[in-house]
Amino acid sequence: MMEQYTNQFINGQWKTGSSDKTIEDYNPFSGESIVTIQSADKEDLEEAFQAAKKAQIKWRDTTPAEKQILFDKLINVMQQQRDDIVDWLIKESGSTRLKANAEFDASVGIIKESASFPTRMAGAILPSNFPNKENRVYRLPKGVIGVIGPWNFPLHLTMRSVAPALATGNSVVIKPASDTPVTSGLLIGKLFQDAGFPDGLVNVVVGRGSEIGDEFVIHPIPKLISFTGSTEVGQRIGEQAGKHLKDVALELGGNNAMVVLKDANIERAAKAAVFGKFFHQGQICMALNRMIVEKEVYDAFVEEFVRLVRGLKVGDPSDEATLVGPVINKAQVERIQKDLQESVEQGAEILVGGEADGCLMQPVVLAHVTNGMPIAKNEIFGPVASIIKAENEEDALQIANDSPYGLSGSIFTEDRHHGVELALKIETGMIHINDQSVNDEPHVPFGGEKESGIGRFNGEWAIEKFTTVKWIGIQSGYREYPFF
């Protein structure tokens, strides 16, 4: 299997990339090289898109029952290979064993949901204002979907596009993240191959963004580009796709806030905040960036939060007891440390942690943070918790909304109805009352507002995104025209 992961996966074949460049895949905890992949170039990309286009024509007409049988086989294959998949997530993305297993389960969940899509591709028959005419609306696959996978939840967040795209009759070409080329691409291609999906339906091209990134987006064959990643890259993809009138599904950055009101259960809020902040080292688009706490309970929240953080085990992600593993690479550590240092210089106080050893960074808790500090203003994507004191509820609302992002969020209050009223005022695509911000269910719409993205994943919203509709008007009798 390792040998296959040094190659590209195109039209059911494992082939050496045509570029003279390579991509080195490193273990972020040990620093060891896992695999070296010969990169793809534009010729490989062209071959992949042509294969996907050809395979989609036959797949489009495959019956729902036949599609669902293959999805059932895919789930069985994944269950049989669970241990190997979990090990890959640990060694390639720095996932703790807890997170890797949760990601595996989430991926299976999205496949199960997607397996229902072939029988949910509903159209409509609408009346006409013209006599003896019938209007039929057909829901059809878009064609070929380009999927650009992320490195933080590489398996699940790539599968979240691939499985719905296939289930709605499309084919896909995946460009995996360079930090996780196996778990966000090549392993997925192998899973679909092992499950017996037709050749060419899933293709994986591993290549540098500088060599095939732009071409992947602007190529005329893919009808939609699905991207999960940073807002900066997402904006560029959106700009390029828009120029070519190509649809996009963009799930981008977040600066998610937990608002803790003065009537909240502080013990429960602190536990939820620790999970929402430090799960997968905070490298989650939905992770809590800011905890905004009303002044009456600020000190109590900080004390309980700090107590819990001091008990987190940091270290080797393969250890069952580890709760916080490595950041994905040293460049990310340096970026986080820079924002941390600048925020301390502006008045933030480190209550816990801050040390870094390679890619392993101790959890950090910052008090006396203001919303204009880099650590609160920017998306952290790392194990740093910022706690902001709010004068009152109105101040907390203003702080929460004072961000260009709007992905997820959280509110803790004993008055659930009032929590919903406040939630409606926070500019975000998702928000949770008396729970933390990291939530994803395969049948519930997932997506953000503002600079956190465009479109919604999961359930019927995924069906809408990965399909198009076609109006066919049928005139059953002679229609009179005014010219004759």
From TrEMBL:
Highest taxon above the source species: Bacteria
Protein name (database record): Salicylaldehyde dehydrogenase
EC number: 1.2.1.65
Listed PANTHER family: BENZALDEHYDE DEHYDROGENASE YFMT (PTHR42986:SF1)
Keyword Repeat: no
A GO MF term: salicylaldehyde dehydrogenase (NAD+) activity
Aldehyde dehydrogenase domain ranges (all copies): 14-472
Origin species: Peribacillus cavernae
